[in-house]
Design goal:
- The chain is α/β, with parallel strands linked by helices.
- The chain folds into two domains: 150 residues, Alpha/beta knot, CATH 3.40.1280; 31 residues, no CATH class.
- β2, α2 and β3 form a beta-alpha-beta unit.
- α1 runs parallel beside α2 and α1 runs parallel beside α6.
- Bound molecules: S-adenosylmethionine.
- The site of S-adenosylmethionine (SAM) has 17 residues, from β4 and α6.
Length: 186
Amino acid sequence: MPAKKIVILRLGHRPQRDKRITTHVGLTARAFGAEGMLLASEDSKLAENINDVSERWGGDFYVKNDVNWKSEIRKWKDEGGKVCHLSMYGVNLPDAVAQISQCEKLMIVVGAEKVPFEIYELADWNVAVGNQPHSEVAAVAVTLDRIATTDPLRNEFQGGELTIVPEKCGKKVIDNRSGSNDGNNG
Ligand code: SAM
Protein backbone atom coordinates (compact mmCIF):
# COMPACT_ATOMS: atom_id res chain seq x y z
CA MET A 1 0.00 0.00 0.00
CA PRO A 2 1.16 3.61 -0.63
CA ALA A 3 3.24 5.48 1.99
CA LYS A 4 1.05 8.59 1.80
CA LYS A 5 -1.59 9.05 4.47
CA ILE A 6 -4.81 10.03 2.68
CA VAL A 7 -8.29 10.41 4.14
CA ILE A 8 -11.50 11.45 2.43
CA LEU A 9 -13.88 13.87 4.14
CA ARG A 10 -17.41 13.42 2.77
CA LEU A 11 -19.63 16.46 3.32
CA GLY A 12 -23.35 16.97 2.90
CA HIS A 13 -24.33 13.29 2.72
CA ARG A 14 -28.14 12.88 2.90
CA PRO A 15 -28.80 9.27 4.02
CA GLN A 16 -31.84 8.65 1.80
CA ARG A 17 -30.66 10.41 -1.32
CA ASP A 18 -26.87 9.87 -1.30
CA LYS A 19 -26.60 6.36 0.16
CA ARG A 20 -25.37 4.73 -3.03
CA ILE A 21 -23.02 7.46 -4.17
CA THR A 22 -21.40 7.91 -0.74
CA THR A 23 -20.90 4.14 -0.56
CA HIS A 24 -19.18 4.36 -3.95
CA VAL A 25 -17.02 7.29 -2.78
CA GLY A 26 -15.88 5.12 0.17
CA LEU A 27 -15.27 1.97 -1.89
CA THR A 28 -13.40 3.93 -4.56
CA ALA A 29 -11.28 5.70 -1.93
CA ARG A 30 -10.42 2.32 -0.40
CA ALA A 31 -9.60 0.68 -3.73
CA PHE A 32 -7.37 3.59 -4.81
CA GLY A 33 -5.33 3.83 -1.61
CA ALA A 34 -7.00 6.12 0.95
CA GLU A 35 -6.77 4.86 4.52
CA GLY A 36 -10.29 5.89 5.53
CA MET A 37 -13.32 8.11 5.08
CA LEU A 38 -14.71 10.64 7.55
CA LEU A 39 -18.47 11.02 7.10
CA ALA A 40 -19.80 14.40 8.23
CA SER A 41 -23.36 13.04 8.64
CA GLU A 42 -24.99 10.37 10.76
CA ASP A 43 -25.35 7.16 8.76
CA SER A 44 -24.04 4.29 10.85
CA LYS A 45 -25.59 1.71 8.48
CA LEU A 46 -23.53 3.02 5.55
CA ALA A 47 -20.35 3.01 7.67
CA GLU A 48 -21.11 -0.57 8.72
CA ASN A 49 -21.63 -1.68 5.09
CA ILE A 50 -18.27 -0.28 3.95
CA ASN A 51 -16.51 -1.73 7.01
CA ASP A 52 -18.04 -5.12 6.10
CA VAL A 53 -16.59 -4.85 2.59
CA SER A 54 -13.14 -4.18 4.09
CA GLU A 55 -13.46 -7.21 6.31
CA ARG A 56 -14.39 -9.42 3.37
CA TRP A 57 -11.87 -8.03 0.87
CA GLY A 58 -8.97 -7.05 3.15
CA GLY A 59 -6.97 -3.99 4.15
CA ASP A 60 -7.52 -1.56 7.02
CA PHE A 61 -9.89 0.97 5.45
CA TYR A 62 -12.29 2.51 7.99
CA VAL A 63 -15.29 4.83 7.99
CA LYS A 64 -15.71 7.25 10.89
CA ASN A 65 -19.38 8.16 11.14
CA ASP A 66 -20.93 11.53 12.08
CA VAL A 67 -17.79 13.64 12.42
CA ASN A 68 -17.73 17.41 12.88
CA TRP A 69 -16.05 18.58 9.64
CA LYS A 70 -14.67 21.80 11.08
CA SER A 71 -12.93 20.18 13.99
CA GLU A 72 -11.61 17.32 11.80
CA ILE A 73 -10.08 19.84 9.37
CA ARG A 74 -8.57 21.90 12.22
CA LYS A 75 -7.14 18.80 13.91
CA TRP A 76 -5.73 17.56 10.58
CA LYS A 77 -4.03 20.90 9.88
CA ASP A 78 -2.71 21.16 13.46
CA GLU A 79 -1.06 17.77 12.91
CA GLY A 80 0.68 19.08 9.76
CA GLY A 81 -1.79 17.70 7.21
CA LYS A 82 -2.92 19.50 4.05
CA VAL A 83 -6.45 19.78 2.69
CA CYS A 84 -7.49 19.43 -0.95
CA HIS A 85 -11.11 20.33 -1.68
CA LEU A 86 -12.45 18.90 -4.94
CA SER A 87 -14.66 21.38 -6.72
CA MET A 88 -15.30 21.98 -10.41
CA TYR A 89 -14.61 25.69 -9.76
CA GLY A 90 -11.05 25.10 -8.54
CA VAL A 91 -7.60 25.08 -10.13
CA ASN A 92 -7.49 22.32 -12.71
CA LEU A 93 -5.77 19.19 -11.31
CA PRO A 94 -2.97 19.05 -13.93
CA ASP A 95 -1.88 22.52 -12.72
CA ALA A 96 -1.74 21.47 -9.05
CA VAL A 97 -0.75 17.81 -9.19
CA ALA A 98 3.02 18.34 -8.83
CA GLN A 99 2.55 20.16 -5.50
CA ILE A 100 -0.17 17.88 -4.14
CA SER A 101 1.80 14.74 -4.99
CA GLN A 102 4.54 15.84 -2.60
CA CYS A 103 2.16 15.98 0.34
CA GLU A 104 2.53 13.03 2.72
CA LYS A 105 -0.62 13.68 4.78
CA LEU A 106 -3.60 14.70 2.70
CA MET A 107 -7.31 15.16 3.39
CA ILE A 108 -9.48 15.16 0.26
CA VAL A 109 -12.84 16.88 0.73
CA VAL A 110 -15.82 16.02 -1.49
CA GLY A 111 -19.30 17.45 -1.31
CA ALA A 112 -22.79 16.24 -2.10
CA GLU A 113 -25.11 19.23 -1.78
CA LYS A 114 -23.73 22.79 -1.81
CA VAL A 115 -20.45 23.01 0.09
CA PRO A 116 -20.10 25.77 2.75
CA PHE A 117 -17.84 28.59 1.50
CA GLU A 118 -15.64 28.21 4.58
CA ILE A 119 -14.33 24.98 3.05
CA TYR A 120 -12.91 26.95 0.11
CA GLU A 121 -11.08 29.19 2.60
CA LEU A 122 -9.83 26.37 4.85
CA ALA A 123 -8.52 24.26 1.95
CA ASP A 124 -4.86 24.44 0.92
CA TRP A 125 -6.00 23.65 -2.62
CA ASN A 126 -9.40 23.93 -4.31
CA VAL A 127 -8.96 21.56 -7.20
CA ALA A 128 -11.08 20.72 -10.22
CA VAL A 129 -10.87 17.42 -12.00
CA GLY A 130 -11.54 19.27 -15.21
CA ASN A 131 -13.73 22.39 -14.90
CA GLN A 132 -16.96 20.62 -15.82
CA PRO A 133 -19.59 19.18 -13.47
CA HIS A 134 -19.47 15.41 -12.97
CA SER A 135 -19.34 13.13 -9.97
CA GLU A 136 -17.56 12.93 -6.63
CA VAL A 137 -16.77 9.26 -7.34
CA ALA A 138 -14.98 10.13 -10.58
CA ALA A 139 -13.26 13.11 -8.93
CA VAL A 140 -11.91 10.93 -6.09
CA ALA A 141 -10.73 8.16 -8.44
CA VAL A 142 -8.93 10.44 -10.88
CA THR A 143 -7.32 12.49 -8.09
CA LEU A 144 -6.05 9.44 -6.19
CA ASP A 145 -4.70 8.01 -9.42
CA ARG A 146 -2.97 11.24 -10.54
CA ILE A 147 -1.31 12.01 -7.17
CA ALA A 148 -0.14 8.45 -6.53
CA THR A 149 3.57 7.63 -6.49
CA THR A 150 2.88 3.93 -7.07
CA ASP A 151 0.16 2.49 -9.28
CA PRO A 152 -3.06 2.29 -7.19
CA LEU A 153 -4.32 -0.51 -9.43
CA ARG A 154 -1.49 -2.65 -8.03
CA ASN A 155 -2.55 -2.08 -4.40
CA GLU A 156 -2.75 -5.26 -2.35
CA PHE A 157 -5.22 -5.79 0.45
CA GLN A 158 -4.12 -8.18 3.17
CA GLY A 159 -6.14 -10.18 5.65
CA GLY A 160 -9.46 -10.38 3.80
CA GLU A 161 -11.77 -13.37 3.68
CA LEU A 162 -11.86 -13.34 -0.12
CA THR A 163 -9.24 -12.85 -2.84
CA ILE A 164 -9.92 -12.60 -6.57
CA VAL A 165 -7.64 -14.50 -8.92
CA PRO A 166 -7.68 -12.49 -12.17
CA GLU A 167 -8.96 -14.57 -15.09
CA LYS A 168 -9.13 -13.88 -18.81
CA CYS A 169 -12.67 -15.21 -18.78
CA GLY A 170 -14.85 -16.07 -15.82
CA LYS A 171 -14.67 -15.42 -12.08
CA LYS A 172 -12.27 -17.06 -9.66
CA VAL A 173 -12.37 -16.22 -5.96
CA ILE A 174 -10.38 -17.88 -3.18
CA ASP A 175 -12.06 -18.17 0.19
CA ASN A 176 -9.09 -17.62 2.52
CA ARG A 177 -10.94 -19.13 5.47
CA SER A 178 -11.21 -22.56 3.85
CA GLY A 179 -8.71 -22.20 0.98
CA SER A 180 -11.42 -23.30 -1.45
CA ASN A 181 -11.82 -21.90 -4.97
CA ASP A 182 -15.14 -20.64 -6.15
CA GLY A 183 -14.73 -20.91 -9.92
CA ASN A 184 -17.82 -19.54 -11.57
CA ASN A 185 -18.30 -18.48 -15.12
CA GLY A 186 -21.64 -16.85 -14.47
N1 SAM B 1 -24.19 21.27 -6.44
C1 SAM B 1 -23.03 21.15 -5.63
C2 SAM B 1 -22.32 22.51 -5.48
O1 SAM B 1 -22.69 23.47 -6.15
O2 SAM B 1 -21.37 22.58 -4.69
C3 SAM B 1 -22.06 20.13 -6.21
C4 SAM B 1 -22.63 18.78 -6.60
S1 SAM B 1 -21.39 17.67 -7.21
C5 SAM B 1 -22.23 16.33 -7.95
C6 SAM B 1 -20.82 16.88 -5.74
C7 SAM B 1 -19.36 16.92 -5.56
O3 SAM B 1 -18.69 16.29 -6.65
C8 SAM B 1 -18.72 18.29 -5.46
O4 SAM B 1 -18.88 18.86 -4.18
C9 SAM B 1 -17.27 17.96 -5.76
O5 SAM B 1 -16.59 17.52 -4.61
C10 SAM B 1 -17.39 16.81 -6.76
N2 SAM B 1 -17.19 17.23 -8.16
C11 SAM B 1 -18.09 17.26 -9.16
N3 SAM B 1 -17.53 17.66 -10.30
C12 SAM B 1 -16.24 17.92 -10.03
C13 SAM B 1 -15.14 18.38 -10.80
N4 SAM B 1 -15.23 18.68 -12.08
N5 SAM B 1 -13.95 18.51 -10.17
C14 SAM B 1 -13.81 18.21 -8.87
N6 SAM B 1 -14.81 17.78 -8.09
C15 SAM B 1 -16.00 17.64 -8.66
